[in-house]
Amino acid sequence: MQRASAVLERESSGIYEPGAEPADPRQPASMTAEPPQKGTDAPRSKRDVAEGGQSLMGLVEGWWKEARAAGRKPSTYESYSKTFAGLVSFLGRDDAGGVTKDDIVRFKDHRLTTPSPRTGKPVSAKTVKDSDLSGLEGRI
C-alpha cells in the first residue's frame, strides 16, 4: 500500500519515470511508460476521462493483455476488473490520472464499511488487502 501511495503521488504530479522504483515483476512494462498522448489508440471509457488521459478500466484491460500472455489466471482478471469497476463507481469517474492516494484510502474505507449486496456484510480487511489493494497496486 505504501508503494502504491508513492506511485500515485508521483504520477498525480505528472511524473512517469521508468525505473524510479525497483523493478516489480508483477508490473507490466507498459505501466511505467509515458501516459498515452492525444490521438493514440489507448482504450478509454466514455465517462469522464480527461483529454489525453487514460481510463481506469483501460488500465486493467491493458494489464490483462500482457498478464494473459504471461499465463495469469482469468480469476485474477475478474477480481481486478471488479475492483477497478468498484473504484470507478465509487469515484464517479473513470480518469486514472485524477486518482489520488486519498481517493484510494477513501475507497478502502468504503469497502470496509459498506455491506456487500451478495452477503449483506462488509468485506473483510483481508479481502480488501489481498484483492482490492493488490489489484490496484502498480496499475494506477
Description:
The protein has 140 residues and is an all-alpha fold. The chain has 5 helices and no strands. Helix 2 runs antiparallel to helix 3 (74-91) and helix 3 (74-91) crosses helix 5. The N and C termini lie close together (12 Å). 19% of the residues are buried.
Q: Number of domains in the coordinates?
A: 1
Q: Rough shape?
A: globular
Strand content: under 5%
- Low-confidence stretches are 19-48
Total count of helical runs of at least 4 residues = 5
Specify the biggest β-sheet. none
Gyration radius (Cα, Å) is 15 Å
Measured between the Cα atoms of the first and last residue, the distance is 12 Å
Q: What is the string of helix and strand elements?
A: HHHHH
| Secondary structure tally: strands | 0
Fraction of residues in H or I helices: 40-55%
Structural class: mainly alpha
Global mean pLDDT = 76
List the helices and strands and how they pair.
Elements: H1 2-12, H2 56-69, H3 74-91, H4 101-113, H5 125-136
Helix pairs in contact: 2-3, 3-5, 4-5
Which features characterize this protein?
mainly alpha, 49% helix, globular
